[in-house]
Amino acid sequence: MAFDATVPPLADAAPATVAERSRAAYGAPHGISVRGLTKTYGPQVILDRIDLEIAPGELLALLGPSGSGKTTLLRLLAGLDTASHGSIRLDGEDAGRLSVQERRVGFMFQSYALFRHMTVFDNIAYGLVVRPRRVRPSRAEIAGRVSDLLDMVQLPGFEKRYPSQLSGGQRQRVALARALAIEPRVLLLDEPFGALDAKVRKDLRKWLRDIHDRTGLTTVFVTHDQAEAMEVADRVAILNGGRIEQIGAPADIRQKPATGFVRAFLD
């Protein structure tokens, strides 16, 4: 059974209280510094000496054609893959010395990766429930956090449903709530709207920007959709062949493309 995928605007009253509690839980967002980041597979260079500074609380879009290195860069930031050379620092700390959990990164896959046999509540709570007992929140704390997140993503009352009972847009929102449940300081999204139709994608753009503004998290998302990147992000980094061709505010990139590739890509 599928439900309406329409994304209502975030209300101004109750969710603001949820957002305030969320900001307090997350703490200060991480700044990210990337230096000389390189990833190779044998002779194939996937990322070639990437330098990148992401300010705390910034929303950065990684834009480029297929095979440009966007998702590889995202996976390296998350700690899901290991760089061949170079470094990633989170608030000045070498991320290479941190486990995935210690990086405080929330990651959302394009496919959502929801557990089909679990309810919405259990999917969102999963990252909390599997923590070691000494750092696991109480059942009441987990229930409160899930309730807050369902309010934030505009799905109150959906906790007992299963993924098969949700529309694509609703599953996307559950996946984002699950990424937020672990109280990350960095949020990484890999083609978050890639599996959705054009109408739903457009509806969700403003919603993602609202969620970002409410949580204050440093957010990096991968997309191949130019309109999506330009509408949602504070800055856009355009990748090509494993290198950053240009990075800047959307208006600056549109008005002053730095290379022939960027000019052609945006046409």
Features:
four-stranded antiparallel sheet, 10 strands, 267 residues, six-stranded mixed sheet, globular, 23% strand, alpha/beta, 9 helices
Strand order of the largest sheet: 6-7-8-3-9-10
The percent range for strand residues is 15-25%
What is the SS-derived class? Answer: alpha/beta
Helix content percent band: 25-40%
Uncertain runs: 1-19
Plain-language structure description:
The protein has 267 residues and is α/β, with parallel strands linked by helices. The chain contains 9 helices and 10 strands. A 6-stranded mixed sheet has the order 6-7-8-3-9-10, with helices on both faces. Strands 2-1-4-5 form a 4-stranded antiparallel sheet, with helices on one face. Helix 3 packs parallel to helix 5. The termini are far apart.
Care to give the gist of this entry?
The protein is an alpha/beta fold and 267 residues long. The chain has helices at residues 14-26, 70-78, 120-129, 139-152, 168-181, 198-215, 226-232, 250-255, 260-266; strands at 32-41, 44-54, 59-63, 85-90, 93-94, 105-108, 186-190, 218-223, 235-240, 243-248.
